[in-house]
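Preliminary data (for renewal application), adenosine-5'-diphosphate complex.
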Amino acid sequence: MTAHAGSSGAGTPRAASIPITVRGVVKTYGNTTALDRVDLDVASGEFMTLLGPSGSGKTTLLMVLAGFIRPDDGSVRFGEREVVRLAPHKRDVGMVFQNYALFPHLDVAANIAYPLKLRRVPAAEAAQRVEAALDMVELGGMGKRRVHELSGGQRQRVALARAIVFEPRIVLMDEPLSALDKQLRDHMQIELRRLHDQLGMTTIYVTHDQREALTMSDRIAVIAGGRVQQVDTPRGLYERPANRFVAEFIGESALLAVDVRDGVCHCAGVPLAVDVWPAGGTPRHLLLRPERVYLAEAAAADGHNVLAARIVDVIYQGDSFLVQGTLADGTRISARGIATAAALARMPARGETAGFAFAARDAVLLADSAT
Ligand code: ADP
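Predicted structure:
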């Protein structure tokens, strides 16, 4: 069921992964409700990301899964087993944090061997497993190095090796890449995903970075105010957000007011062609992604919509351009395009009126119940 599962050529996963089932989890701190009846289903071997703004409850949920926080109410199952009262070290989960949490006085190999020592794995076997884990994170031969001799990216690889060396069935990661610079972060996103595909463990990954979530995940749970807003594939979230929060949190968007007359949805007085009507509730907003909007002549092609707007800004951004306009009622609309020479030559000037066009399939309606 997962987009990437089994797609790697690295052979069969070593550890059997298991699903995670969260039901009705509540955690309050005084007057703050950090988690408000959270339900979540993570499939076996899935890469699930918890995405949300700061303070939305992501870390609290991850700590509930790890066993460091006991919720006020609710259930957490790993496979068939209820674990909500189980101590962290009995949960068989690997963890990676933002700040590595490595032991500075131990060398790389000893850091990675630590969870094996806790589990009383014989020394010879432990040494073999440490070597394999080092290879896995592409640090082969670096076992004798001291932690302070490593770069940030290398330290994070050591932390990762330590989290996977005992072959846990579940790996939890809390913003593991946020201390790295952008180039390394981009690289490590791909590496982490590759490692997940090789090992096949169920992975829960916390980030506030929507691009990171879109890049890495099988599915994303968007969290705000201690509640799961929507769980879907990256593409599902982007193209069919369930509510206004998700629409505005993920990707660039413009929200335009709509009203329904005689069963037809109108925006700025123009009847709209739309492919999908929102389930439940009356459409209130039209969500448009700038890259799905293009500049056009006034006449609409079949199945396309055109709204006339006055150009207020043309912004050149190197590979692309962004044209911003206002409809008659003052609402903003944007179109983004590839900055080809031909497109730039046709660019309207500020103050002119242009058609902002979009296909019926790209007209996403949000219902009142969802805002
Ligand atoms: P996120 O990881 O999404 O940034 P957190 O899970 O850390 O969010 O926090 C969720 C909410 O719970 C926030 O309002 C935060 O201030 C509050 N919170 C978290 N931990 C504590 C704590 N130990 N004591 C009091 N409030 C807390």
